[in-house]
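Class, look over these structure tokens:
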Amino acid sequence: MSPARARSAERRRAPPLEAKKQPEQQRAAETVERILEATAAALADIGFERLSTNIVCARAGLTPPALYRYFPNKYALLYELGRRLMQRQNALVPLWITPQALTGSTAELERALAGLLIDTRRVTAETIGGVWIMRALRAAPALQAVRLESHAEVTKAQTALLVETLPGADPAELRLIGRIAVEMIYAAVEMLFDEPLDVAATARIVASMIASQLSRVQGGEK
């Protein structure tokens, strides 16, 4: 089978992820939120592997037909939770990675990058079921697009900022650096939930690696 046909077959096998019905009334919106809250709480308690729509229904006090009116399967639930988590994580990026951080000293940029990593970990930990949502986005092939599309969005915004603040650098190289930086920070956050590592030290090392590359592009230490 050709790669194109294999991808087409994979798409046909993938479970539907979009919500079946968008809530238009307050009561429907409240039901959707109750379903998502129940899903997140179940994830926090039992993890991704054991999650099922029956468990969500029991926790939300709904019948399966009531849940399926909005979400066709557990992957659609995880898709929405993943989308929301990534939005919360992504909202931190412009708070830390600013024109001032990019044009200041290398030490200042390292502090900003480390702060972003630590803050991303904090937001994920504070989100009910956040760790398991993050793991599901990595483990389930059907959900990987949520992570990749979110990372592409952040990379695009950061590339534009890098090109603006570093006008003498190659835009293609800046985009590659931005894409790798996004993946490094996200992977480091995942690692911090998987292993009992020193958070500050991990953030400092990752930040130093990214900042040193940007310094090289600019022609040396700032």
About this structure: The CA atoms of residues 120 and 134 lie 12 Å apart. The mean pLDDT is 91.
